[in-house]
Write a structure and sequence with these properties.
Layout: H1 5-8, H2 13-19, E1 44-57, H3 59-65, H4 70-75, E2 76-90, E3 96-102, E4 105-108, E5 111-114, E6 118-121, H5 124-134, E7 138-140, E8 142-148, E9 151-158, E10 161-178, E11 185-189, E12 195-199, E13 201-216, E14 232-243, E15 247-249
Parallel strand pairs: 6-7
Antiparallel strand pairs: 1-2, 1-14, 2-3, 2-4, 3-6, 4-5, 8-9, 9-10, 10-13, 11-12, 12-15, 13-14
Organism: Leptospira semungkisensis
Protein name: Acetoacetate decarboxylase
InterPro entries: Acetoacetate_decarboxylase, ADC_dom_sf
Length: about 250
């Protein structure tokens, strides 16, 4: 029995080429997430425990290794920055962990601001809402946070590969801590160049802490010590933090 003409027919080459066409990669900005999802606008109220280790930014290292773009490099001034590791036990989007790096000051129209240039969190919702609300360039990662007496061991990984490890020991007696003593005013950038300023407000009970060991894969996260970091910092437990609505800066 002969095959019908329809059976013999082959698809046109043009159609086959169209079927194999690869779609363009979508660009995610602070304002184009799927509108069907629930959103969590600022202000946010957060509580938990966390470590802050200061750094005095080494410009030569951070300009190349702190994930700065060309505009960042031109405005980067060094100075006081920090490494932060936080266990948010409560937040507007539920509990999550956070690792972030601030390499120091960035100048904008004669004023100095802090800027988070690298940040990982354990919650995808925190990623999306952090970008949306404050233009904070969050990325998702997996965390392990283990306490062994006064020692805390933290590891951060992506796709099963660890890129950051730290061991921290808490020291001495507690004392009050407040962001009014060490104010941090952030200036973050949206993808369209819009600049958003945020001054978070926090208080809690702190004690001294010391880094026993720290390592990072510099292709993913800066080396804190090479960037100008100090191994003595503050452990806050508990703390209360308010992240207000960001203000647009011209």
């Amino acid at each position: 029995m002969k095959a019908s003409a329809a059976t013999k027919a082959k698809p046109k080459k043009k159609a086959a080429k169209s079927a194999l066409k690869i779609p363009k990669k979508a660009t995610v900005t602070g304002n184009n997430f799927a509108t069907s999802k629930r959103h969590y606008p600022a202000p946010w109220s957060l509580t938990g425990e966390g470590y802050l280790f200061p750094l005095f930014g080494k410009k030569s290292y951070n300009a190349e290794m702190a994930f700065l773009d060309e505009e960042d490099r031109k405005s980067y001034r060094g100075g006081l920055g920090s490494l932060m590791l936080v266990n948010y036990e409560r937040s507007n989007v539920g509990p999550y962990y956070e690792l972030l790096y601030i390499p120091g000051n960035f100048e904008h129209k004669g004023k100095n601001y802090k800027r988070i240039t690298r940040i990982f969190v354990s919650s995808q919702t925190s990623v999306e809402e952090g970008i949306r609300n404050w233009a904070i360039p969050k990325e998702r990662a997996d965390f392990t946070w283990k306490k062994e007496g006064s020692l805390t061991k933290i590891e951060v990984s992506r796709n099963g590969k660890t890129f950051f490890k730290i061991e921290i020991r808490s020291l001495g007696f507690g004392f009050p801590v407040n962001t009014s003593v060490l104010p941090y005013v952030l200036l973050q950038k949206e993808e369209d160049g819009t600049k958003l300023s945020t001054a978070f407000i926090g208080k809690g009970k702190g004690k001294l802490s010391r880094i026993e060991s720290v390592w990072s894969d510099e292709t993913v996260f800066p080396d804190f010590v090479k960037g100008g970091g100090f191994k003595t910092g503050i452990f806050a437990d508990p703390f209360d933090l308010i992240f207000p609505v960001a203000e647009q800066v011209d």
